[in-house]
Structures are given as structure tokens and as C-alpha cells.
Amino acid sequence: MTTSKVDSEANAASGNAGSALGKAFIGIAGIIGAGKTTLATALGQHLGLDVHYEPVIDNEYLADFYRDTRRYSFAMQIYLLNRRFQQHQEIIWRGRGGVQDRTIYEDAIFARALRDMDLMDNRDYETYVNLFRNLSNFMCRPNVIIYLDVTPEKSMERIRERDRGIESGITVEYLTRLYNNYEEFLHEISRLIPVLRVRWDDFWEVERLAEAITREYMRGGFLREVARLA
After folding, report:
1. Which of 68, 120, 199, 226 is the most exposed place for a label (fewest CB within 10 A)?
2. Per-chain mean pLDDT for the chain
């Protein structure tokens, strides 16, 4: 396929992206530092969708969580679950679609990692899981989840580049644990929600990614890998 033909097809599909995904509920998934916020912002602007960001700046527990993780792990997870459930319902009830920077379904990945690292009591973990299951009875599913597949090493590099002081304690080992948990998560969630897996070690141009997302979204569900246009 020639470059001009690729550009022509990309432009045509990009022009149809708004109509194809105009009221879609799109979740952006990935480990810490994967680039979710960057993509969510660009995709929201490109498709004319509201963007619902992960609570960071106004997170009342974040600093305490990184300072004393074991003490605040349960409170942190409950806080995030509540905030993301609120976002989730807001997207549904507004009826105009949206892009969510990290989905509610991913919170369990982090809770499990905390439990496995002995940073959350097993009793607290079970309480968290049961609460999530109860909340899930009231949730409509996203139309599609875009998983940004980034190596733990690349994520670590981006975390260092953005230089948030509170994230200084994050290790490659922790990111690797999360990455492996995400692999299991994708296998399970793709049975319920279409998942588009994007190799995201190098940032894509959002126009071409929107075209690829639209193309794969229209082809139907299950776990698919989005091929980058050359």
C-alpha cells in the first residue's frame, strides 16, 4: 500500500470517526506511566467526547498512600472505586459518551497487587472485591477498552520524566507485577467488553490511532490488537 493511499484511507476514516464513535463510552487502560492521560485528552478532542480523568491532583489519599502504603491501601482503593463509579455513572447518564482515563475494572488489579505484596490485609481485600461486585450490578459496560501495552521499563522511564515526587518510590518490580496482572485481566474482561490492544511504547499520532480504533471497533468484539499504519 502506498503512502498516499494510506493517508487517504486514514483521512477518510478519521472523518467518519466522530459519527462512528460520537456517543461511545471508551475506556483507556494501562499500567502507571503508560500514557493514558495523553491519549484520553487527544482522543477526546479528536472525537468530540468528554474526558474523565483519573483523580490525581485532588486525590485526598495519594500522598499518604505513597508515604505509608500498608496503612492507607484500603482507604485509597475505596476512594478510587467510589470516584471511578461516580465517573462511570456520569458518562452513562449524560448519554453523550466519553473517554475515561483508567476504567473502574482495573482498580481490582491494583488491589490484588497490594494484597499479594502484603500491603493490604486479606480481609480488606475481600471487602473491596465484594463491594466492587455489588457496584458492578449497576454499571453499564463501556463500548470498548483501549489497552496501552507498554513495557514496565518504558513506564518507569516515563514516570521519571514526569517527575512527580510522590511517585519516586515506584519500582520496576512493582510495575512488572502490575503488567502481569493486566495480562490476566485482559483475558477475562475481553469476554465481556471489546478490547483493543495498542503497542504504545512509541506514541502514535492520534488521528491515525483514532482511525485504527474506529476500524477495529466497527469490526466487532473480543481481544484484538490494533496494527499501526506505516
Report:
1. 68
2. 83
